[in-house]
Amino acid sequence: MIPVMCIVQEGQVSKAAERALKSEIGSFTRRAFDAPADIDWIVVPTGSGFTAARPSTTVIASLHANRDLADKERASLLRQLAEICMRKTGRSAHEVVTSIRNPR
After folding, report:
1. pLDDT for 39 beyond 90
2. CA 40, CA 88: separation in Å to the nearest integer?
3. CA distances from 59 to 2, 27, 72 (A)
4. For labelling, which of 16, 58, 63, 67 has a CA lying 20 to 30 Å from the CA of 104?
5. Of 49, 54, 61, 50, which Cα lies nearest the Cα of 89?
6. Alpha carbon of 102 to those of 61, 64, 68: distances in Å?
7. Given a cut of 90, is residue 55 above it in pLDDT?
8. Residue 13 in 3-state DSSP?
9. Which residue has the higher pLDDT, 66 or 57?
């Protein structure tokens, strides 16, 4: 299993978009790491997340790889993950934060 943490702001991602994002992240981890995603979906309550003194619109997707990644491969996978998040949530590149960490 690939541990994935997704953090979204309450009311900004519909249930349909949530299902689609989880599904596509699962497909991504199977392609990239030959393992299913174990997604921890965290919703930040309205009024609790801020960026530059305004309510946050950020979506965060962070995962642990099951193998060490070379920089070039990591960069490519980060671009793919960010594109998935933008496409499924309607957020811009400025609103999506992604990380892919090597195993501990």
Report:
1. yes
2. 17
3. 19, 19, 24
4. 58
5. 61
6. 15, 6, 5
7. no
8. coil
9. 66
Angle at 65 (CA atoms; ends 63, 66), nearest 5 degrees:
140
Residue 1 corresponds to which tokens in the numbers above?
């299993």
Pick the CATH number of 2-101 from 3.30.429.10, 3.40.30.10, 3.40.50.150, 3.40.50.1010: 3.30.429.10
Residues 9-44 as b or e (16 or more Cβ within 10 Å = b)? beebbeeebbebbbebbbebbeebbeeebebeeebb
The beta-carbon contacts of 20-24 under 8 Å, at least 24 apart in sequence, are 20/88, 21/84, 21/85, 21/88, 21/89, 24/84, 24/87, 24/88
Token readout for 73 is 């491969």
Residue 94 has a pLDDT of 94
Q: What are phi and psi of 65, to 5 degrees?
A: -70, 160
> Average pLDDT for residues 16-25, to the nearest whole number?
96
Reply yes or no on whether the pLDDT at 85 is more than 80: yes
